[in-house]
Design goal:
Blueprint (H helix, E strand, L loop, with lengths): L2 H12 L7 H17 L15 H4 L5 E2 L12 H9 L5 E6 L2 E2 L13 E5 H7 L18 H8 L4 E6 L9 E8 L7 E3 L2 E6 L4 E11 L4 E11 L4 E9 L4 E11 L4 E8 L4 E10 L5 E10 L4 E10 L5 E10 L4 E10 L6 E11 L5 E10 L4 E10 L3 H8 L5 H17 L5 H19 L9
Parallel strand pairs: 1-7, 2-6, 5-8, 6-9, 7-10, 8-10, 9-11, 10-12, 11-13, 12-14, 13-15, 14-16, 15-17, 16-18, 17-19, 18-20, 19-21
Antiparallel strand pairs: 2-3, 4-5
Helix pairs in contact: 2-6, 7-8, 8-9
Amino acid sequence: MSPALESLARLALARARDAAPAWIERLREEAAVVAREQGLPSRRLEAWKGTSLAKLEALDFVRVGPGAEPARPDAQPARARATAETPDDAIELVFVDGRFEAFASRTTDLPEGVSVRSLAELLVSEPEALEGRLGTLAEPKGPSLVALQTSWLEDGAVVAIDRDVQLATPIRLRFLATADAADAPSAAFPRLLVVAGRGSQATLFQDFACEGDAPGLTNFVAELHIEAGARLEAIELQRETAPRVHVTQTHARLERDARLDSTVLSLGTGLVRSELSVALAEPGAETRMAGFFLGREDGHVDHYTTVDHAAPHCTSVEEYRGVLDDHSKGVFRGRVIVRPGAQKTDAKQSNPNLLLSDRATIDTKPQLEIYADDVKASHGSTIGQLDAEALFFLRARGIDEARARLMLTRAFAHSVVDGVGEAAIREELRERVDAALATTHGALDAEESV
């Protein structure tokens, strides 16, 4: 067993958990067995050929969840900033090292028919509300990282939207990891469960950030149940620092005529693995999946997506864009499955990539697996550099080379960000992307407009 799993096992034995119903304890125990038996994924597995977890395997964890509590609630800078960053009328849950922070969250005066609560609270007060939903899409006996996360199932967010509720205000979830330079490695295992009722509509914004530069692990699992006719926009922003390993695994199931709009932005500088699996389970379901990943320094960013067309008359449109600089490496695996009987499927997949350095690399493999005969499907990937003619056009108009390159790279990234439906979040994401790109090029101040 790797040092990482050994240290987590020791911490699990020493940990006192709150009382939980028998089915939750059984879920945790079964997941722990699977995690120990399978170990961490290796490059021998097809799904992991492009990514090594040696960096994670070597970690010797000393804590899971928050460290010592500060004397005053506002003594924790990350918590104070989380409160200050959000509009006063926002719906927001804040998690520090995977644990819910009530004082930094805003969950009062929720619209009728909307519930936003911590998982830890529900495990104690209403565990029956979770049964039949929690642990059904993210199979704890499946991939070992899902099993590892489920074995530490303690806290996270539970979002429930009643039938026909149209939520005008986005729900924000902030996940903050604390990792001071003097700290030994720590781990966080936040969970998300969303139930979007029939005919409902909502926007969900997940923001992962890190304070400090000690090594550690964020292992996040989300399950999205989207009922018939519901519309969910799910936005994920990852901006953790280099020494931290960041893993997210999102599983969504769409019923008849449901829609999922997913946008994933990976701006962190460390080892990132983002998985998104969408099951179009009933006729008329559709999904739009957009992503942008930025590789800097010696960062490694891996996106693995699966769209399962399990029913006829379903539509999927996917485009992930990558920008790689310095010594960074990007990986994209996009898998589209069209099941027997899933006639009238319409599936599109694209992965364009820009290499800004001759030392950066991208490993891309879009895939189609089609077992029906009345299908429209396409997929493709491109790898290139900034267009020389476009650069010449801008230079000829008096724009220096560094600024011209930044303008073109921003335009490439903004085509993903501009697809976000919520205006305030869209503007926030544009600022985050622009700031990250400016530091990549090292030529312009992030606040300077182009």
